[in-house]
Design goal:
Belongs to the thiolase-like superfamily. Chalcone/stilbene synthases family. The chain has 353 residues and is α+β, with helices and mostly antiparallel strands. It has 11 helices and 13 strands.
Length: 353
Amino acid sequence: MNQQAPARRATLLSIASAVPPLSLTQEEFFEGALRHWYKDIPHAERIVFNTGVRRRHFTWDPRVELKDGSRGLGDRVRVYEREGLRITQESVQKALGDLERSRVGAFAMTTNSGYSGPGLDLFIAKNLGLNSHIRRTFVGHMGCFAAFPVLRTAMDSVAARPDELVIANASEYSSLQFHTTPDPEQVVIHGLFGDASCTVVVGSAPDGEGVQFLRSHTEQLYDTNELMAWNIHNDGFRMTLSPYVPFVLAEHVDRILERLLGPEGLSKKDVTRWLIHPGGPKILEGLARQLKLDKSSMRASWHVLGEYGNCGATTALLVLEETLKTDKPQRGEYGVMMGFGPGLTVESMLVRF
């Protein structure tokens, strides 16, 4: 009698990040740039230092590049093409490590920080000697939740072709879109965002072997689309971020988690690791209150916020990397990843460590 083969799932084989070499403390960036930009905005200093960010990485030095005012979109994209390629490739190369590159069949990448064609993913595949028949998927301008559609692309790819490996990358170079416009909303944004790239390599493995992506759930909060936006202007990209976002997320999170966990026969009490996108301290605090979590339950999220800032789509993967590196979850523990962005769109994913 034939035995049924064990179920296989999308499994994380490796994860690695890379950051620009320029690192500034919040104090250094405020004194070198933000104090001058926002000298006429009341409470700007308090706003910046209430973000929870201690240090960030910058692809270019806004203190220098923007000292004479704003820069054109073309100038910003040229830096993205050059420096973004270098940093993203470092992340991908580290994640590939000793894995068999001939098995890589797909490459999914997202960024909200710049555009060019061919994209960075093509040049990285070429430079690293990946297959010429590699399938590339680029996810652009979806905001801070964009790592989730990239991960879903990887999940679908290994389900269809279980012998292949998939590169899933999120890279953000938000400092290339900073502005000197004296707008109170921009004080918060420029006090939060930083630059980083993170890559995971996903393969198919038997059920229960390694960190596995079990399922995802997406929720569109259609009536809140005006609360967050990421628009293109002549002098670069510009974000809109409403202070009401944390309250909206807290209002909907329980229903979203029921839809994510219920089909697996799980509930919130079964989740021991909360990998929440640190869009800002009020988001983390609001969700912690609603879910009745103590701060240690989201330690990795708070750490990434403090040491990297909000790195857009990359942040969810940085939180996953930090969780694996420092918290070292036990085999069989469940975790929930969550991200939020324009829409408002809420992405969630159930993982088993």
